[in-house]
Amino acid sequence: ATRFLRIAWLGNFVVWFVFGLMRYVYPKIVVALEMSPTDHGLFMFTIGLFQTLTFLLLGLFASWHFRFHLIVVVELIVAGSFVALSTASSRYTIFPLCAMVGCCNGFLYFSSLYYSLYSSHRKASRSAIHEAMVGSGMFIGPLLGGLVAAEFGLRVPFAAVPIPVLAVIATQYVLFRIRPKKLRSTCCKKQVD
Predict the structure, then answer these.
(1) What gap in Å lies between CA 149 and CA 164, rounded to an integer?
(2) Which of the two residues, 151 and 2, has the higher pLDDT score?
């Protein structure tokens, strides 16, 4: 469970890192596309709605627990959605992408929360780290995204989202492949016996 906890924390961080771009950088794209503030509000509403629906669905099923590949697939969908957002100029394209972002955000946030609270006497400290991942992602993502947007253009941070996502996936893979010490020592004893 500790392995998945660290993997989920990283996923939670990266999804809030890139979600910060939607919240703080995307309004400038909306203005450039000559859309209204209402449009941006509806985009954010769509993300929130699908995030909430995802929370509710995940609460009903346990089949997603301890499935590393699901975390990776969701992160890849996040990356693809943001790349698509970097070129999207129609409301009819942006709304489904916002729905995808909301579902992915919901899955990665809920996963991190689930593993933080999973059979541990350290629920408080693990929940604190879970929320710290949200907070740090929300200020680091927009900060770096804003710097990149100022230097290279508003859409570039969205096109560059696969960079931090793939870096996180690579780190998660390493964490997934490393077996905990207890499990390693048990396996070694069995082999000796």
Answers:
(1) 16
(2) 151
pLDDT in the model for residue 155 = 95
The C-alpha atoms of residue 95 and residue 33 are separated, in whole angstroms, by: 14
Long-range CB pairs of 51-56, under 8 A, 24+ apart, other chains included? 51/102, 51/103, 51/105, 51/106, 51/109, 52/106, 53/102, 53/103, 53/106, 54/102, 54/103, 54/105, 54/106, 54/107, 54/110, 55/106, 55/109, 55/110
Instruction: Pick the closest to residue 85 from 138, 28, 125 (CA basis).
Output: 28
Contact 129, 113 (CB under 8 A): no
Model pTM above 0.85: yes
56 within 8 A of 50, measured Cβ to Cβ: no
Helix/strand/coil for 32: helix
Q: What is the DSSP letter of 153?
A: -
Which amino acid, residue 70?
A: L
